[in-house]
Design goal:
globular, mainly alpha, 342 residues
Length: 342
């Protein structure tokens, strides 16, 4: 789990964003390269976000959300929102690592089961994991005041400010923001709310659901001395070191956005200014009032997405299942990630 948190949140997957920003002179002299990056980034954020809507594997939901957020960064970098993209790269590392760590805690409590359809009711059984997972999910959703709110909406404001075709890109980003808020809270409601699953009940009673010592992917029986989950069964909820790690990430997810508040702070922008001094577009910054308008719109979209998820999974549970049955081909198409894995 810590390894997947590191790789899928902060290192390998975001290297391309860093490279586009570093190679900005080449992108700025080639309109074709700029638009290839902008269109691919936009397609990535929408394809991954729609795929995350229907995934049933907890880690896949989070992994597809990573793809979607990198789409924001790539499209933003193509629009010359370099500082904003690097800002989002930083905040994303905190809240996405937090989500992977929290998910690992839940999966361990489930005895290796990752299917969200088999989860539920962990709110009482795992209060610490619930708290930090909610912080991570709300930050991903762009909830007002949290770090993802400042960085993602800054990308959208800068992209909108470029005008022309980039206005369409910014519009697609807003659609992606609504989807992001929905699938983020979908994971929260499916895993932590509702009736407690058997594993959650076991945990509430002070026991751990060991389950069978089998590989959850293949069903193969495993030697507890070397295999998964091992002879000793640990969950992050009960381990001090893991609580420190998750708590630190939660704290950074909350406060990291304060380094770049429109009209108040601009630490990232100032720090990166020498890198983009030669850019012909990076200094075309939207006005403070425009940026705050964008933040207000972003906040409204995030709250709407959260409200829809609450309606679908708490107020009217089962409504999404009926929709999936009614539009089975669409559900299958999205579940299969638009056929890209195939």
């Amino acid at each position: 789990t810590p390894l997947s948190a590191l790789i899928h949140a902060a290192t390998m997957v975001t290297a391309g964003v860093y490279l586009i920003c570093r190679f900005h002179p080449f992108f700025e002299i080639s309109e074709v390269a700029t638009w290839v990056a902008a269109i691919l980034g936009t397609a990535t954020l929408l394809i991954a976000a729609t795929t995350a809507l229907v995934q049933t594997d907890l880690k896949r939901i989070i992994a597809y959300s990573t793809m979607s957020q990198i789409g924001y960064m790539v499209a933003g970098a193509a629009a010359a929102a370099y500082s904003a993209s690097m800002f989002h790269l930083m905040t994303h590392a905190f809240f996405k690592a937090l989500l992977f760590m929290s998910a690992g805690s839940v999966i361990a409590a489930m005895g290796g089961v990752q299917d969200v359809r088999k989860m539920g009711g962990f709110k009482k059984a795992m209060p610490f994991t619930y708290a930090v997972f909610v912080i991570g999910a709300l930050t991903l959703a762009g909830f007002p005041g949290l770090s993802g709110f400042w960085s993602k909406d800054e990308i959208i404001s800068f992209t909108m400010n470029r005008g022309g075709g980039f206005t369409v890109i910014a519009g697609a980003m807003l659609v992606g923001a609504l989807l992001t808020a929905f699938y983020s809270m979908r994971a929260v409601f499916l895993v932590f709310h509702g009736d407690p699953c058997d594993q959650a009940k076991e945990l509430e009673g002070g026991h751990l659901a060991h389950g069978d010592h089998t590989n959850p992917a293949t069903g193969e029986h495993e030697d507890t001395g070397v295999g998964f989950p091992g002879a000793d069964h640990h969950i992050a909820e009960r381990e001090g070191e893991m609580k420190v790690a998750m708590g630190t990430l939660a704290f950074l997810s909350v406060i990291a956005g304060f380094v770049q508040i429109p009209g108040v702070t601009h630490k990232i922008e100032t720090w990166l200014e020498p890198v983009f001094a030669d850019s012909q577009y990076a200094h075309d910054i939207p006005s403070v009032s425009t940026q705050w308008t964008g933040l207000a719109v972003g906040a409204a979209i995030a709250l709407i997405g959260i409200a829809i998820a609450y309606w679908a999974y708490v107020a009217r549970p089962g409504v999404t299942g009926k929709l999936a049955e009614r539009f089975a081909p669409v559900d299958k198409f999205l579940t299969n990630a638009w056929g890209f894995d195939w």
